[in-house]
Amino acid sequence: MHRSRVEILNILKRRDEATLEELAAELKLATITVRSHVAVLLRDGLVAVNEVRGRVGRPHYVFTLTEQAQELFPKSYDVLANRLLEAVEAAEGMEGVARLLARVAERWAAECAPQVAARSLADRVAAVARLRDEEGAMARWEPFDDGYLLYQGNCPTYRVARRYPQVCRAELTYLTRLLAAEVVRLECQLDGRGQCTYLIRESGNR
């Protein structure tokens, strides 16, 4: 991304909102130049514009980050997740961690099930691949023998799964419930592989 657009996003992150003139002043660029960069950010869904009307004079426009743009900034969810699981482990042991993650997987699958409702397994696999891609897994799929392969090029929970591999088991439960099929993990990034790979077949197929 162009450096000036990155700086615009950073300014909006710090300030919550800003006008074109305020952005131009911080960037030390001409307003017309900033307007062209903001137009690209608007097009890409990273910035939103709101009209503000005062008591007198013409309305002015302020720009804010969209939810999509917020996701571009670093997050430390793994720190909180690990601390929460550490608290569960201290109170209930690793069995308690496994039980909690199993419940999370079941509820997660139930919430996402309407997005995966389809009659054929191929359609369900395609829907799950789209869903996992939205969840940050960089997912893709392809037919394979009597089933399908689901590849995940990124592990969104890697930093938690390194400490608590039960997270991987929960993901397997999540996929199995969503797909209503037999799901077998063939590769896992925790084992040093470049991706997680799942073999998916109709239940009972061997």
Notes on the protein architecture:
- With 206 residues, the chain is an alpha+beta fold.
- The protein has two domains: 3-70, Arc Repressor Mutant, subunit A; 77-201, Muramoyl-pentapeptide Carboxypeptidase, domain 2, CATH 3.30.1380.20.
- 51% of the residues lie in helices and 17% in strands.
- The protein is built from eight helices and six strands.
- The protein has a four-stranded antiparallel sheet with strand order 3-4-6-5, covered by helices on one side. Strands 1-2 form a two-stranded antiparallel ribbon.
- A hairpin with a 2-residue loop joins strand 3 (139-144) and strand 4 (147-152).
- It is elongated, with a radius of gyration of 23 Å.
- It starts with a helix and ends in a 5-residue tail after the last strand.
- The model has no long low-confidence stretch (mean pLDDT 91).
Offer a concise description of the structure.
By secondary structure, the chain is an alpha+beta fold. It has helices at 3-15, 20-27, 31-43, 67-70, 77-112, 121-134, 158-161, 166-179; strands spanning 47-52, 60-65, 139-144, 147-152, 182-187, 196-201. The protein folds into 2 domains: 3-70, Winged helix-like DNA-binding domain superfamily/Winged helix DNA-binding domain (Arc Repressor Mutant, subunit A); 77-201, Muramoyl-pentapeptide Carboxypeptidase, domain 2 (2-Layer Sandwich).
